[in-house]
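Entry
Fold in token form

___
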Amino acid sequence: MRARKLTVQIGWMCLAVVSLGILVFGVVVAVAPVTGDAPLYRAYGLASIGLGFFGGLIVLVPYRRTERWAWWTLWFYPVFWAVHLVGNLPPGTDHIHQVVFIALSLIGLAAPVRAFFPRGRGPAEPGVPSRLS
């Protein structure tokens, strides 16, 4: 049981870093948009703030409670960053942060997989979160 709690802790920390990175990027872009179409960049910044904020809330509450829907929902992060990497999309041109965020997202989802889906247990009842004992 202790190992499961540790994997969940590692997982939520990794995913919280990704959420915080997205949120901080959004704040920077919303406050100080790059040259060009400032209103468009501010809109991107606000969208990023929302993504980071709501992702962070999912990480900090239902994910830490090991609710399966939160685990499935957070698969958005590695997909989001993989699309940015493959599509050569912003932010930045070095793409190192995208690889780091993909890795952190995958660690955050893979490490605690047994806490979310314990062996020998059937599917959780709808509306009943899977809890660590």
Q: What stands out?
A: The mean pLDDT is 87.
